[in-house]
Amino acid sequence: MFLVRHAFVRRRGMMWRRFSTTKSTTDFSVRAFYVADRIDIYALARKKQETDPTLPQQLQRKHVIFNVSENDVKKYVALHEFGAAVFFLDVDKENGEIASNIASRHSDFITRSLEETYEFCDKTLPTPIADEFTVCQDETLESWCKLGDNRIFVQDLDIHNVRIISEVIAQSVALQYYESQTVNMLKQFRSSNSTMIKAGSSKLKKHKLFTMIAENNKILIDIMANLGLLDRAGPMGWRYEKYYSVWETLRDDFEIARRFKSLDDKISMVQDNAKFFLEVFHSRKSERLELIIIALITGELTLGLYQHWGGFHPIPFVGS
């Protein structure tokens, strides 16, 4: 019988599993948070440059990556303009640390980093949407990357891999937020439909309906324009097949395409329900206008009949 060191990772919706490690591997716990509608990465990068000019950073069009490595231990923070923050944190396997407990060691660092990020956020969420993943750097890996159980193996966690991995995981937590928003709107429409079935009318207010329509449109615009779910891999992914394989493997594992299709279907359902209730409001308005017109015609006819039967005697004009 022999002993091996362990770490534990958690598959979304699955039981804890055990995996063996070797000295040639380095594990990173990747923590992703969707915190706001938007992060001003340019202003944040300028402030970081002013406060710590020696801090390595990679500023791109839609994200910025800070290399906060210490004592030959790699650590990265990736902030995406569409509102997500991703942390790459080392797992101290030498001291028997497990991936699920890494948050306790880095909790102050994560909290401090998020608080600094909030200063540059628009419409911060009361509770961030979070997810976690494990990246294992294995120098002996035959292929450039290989998918495991809620983890991905890579030969080297260089800055390009950090960029690609953080982007996919950031898109995943953003999708979680938009999925929850869309489901909440569908629940409200379900309640209104149930009331309509029972009482023949709905208590849904017009301003509330317009708010949901605007929110639904915003979600669709954010997905298309900001998240870039339909975009291809970045320049490194197109230039080098090995980086493209990481991008493709992670997108398949997080089911980005399927979840986008599911979200798109939910958005279409919201649009259909909104169209129905707009027609209901239009019908109610038309009925009110018809009643007003009928009341005016009735009043005019009544006045005419009253004049015709002599009930009304205007004062005659007397000339000089």
Explain this structure to me?
It is a single chain. The protein has about 325 residues and is α+β, with helices and mostly antiparallel strands. Helices cover about 50% and strands about 20% of the residues. It contains 7 helices and 10 strands. It has helices at about 40-50, 100-120, 160-200, 205-225, 235-240, 240-255, 255-310; strands at about 5-10, 15-20, 25-40, 55-60, 65, 75-80, 85-90, 120-140, 145, 150-155. The strands form 2 sheets. The chain has an 8-stranded mixed β-sheet with strand order 4-5-6-7-3-8-10-9, with helices on both faces. The protein has a two-stranded antiparallel sheet with strand order 1-2. A hairpin with a 3-residue loop joins strand 6 and strand 7 (about 85-90). Helix 4 packs antiparallel against helix 7. The N and C termini lie far apart (about 130 Å). The model is unreliable at about 1-20 (pLDDT under 50).
Quick recap:
The protein contains seven helices and ten strands. By secondary structure, the chain is of the alpha+beta class.
Helix and strand layout, with pairings?
Blueprint (H helix, E strand, L loop, with lengths): L5 E5 L5 E5 L4 E15 L1 H11 L5 E3 L3 E5 L8 E5 L3 E7 L11 H17 L2 E18 L6 E3 L3 E4 L4 H41 L6 H22 L7 H5 L1 H13 L2 H53 L12
Parallel strand pairs: 8-10
Antiparallel strand pairs: 1-2, 3-7, 3-8, 4-5, 5-6, 6-7, 9-10
Helix pairs in contact: 3-4, 3-6, 3-7, 4-7
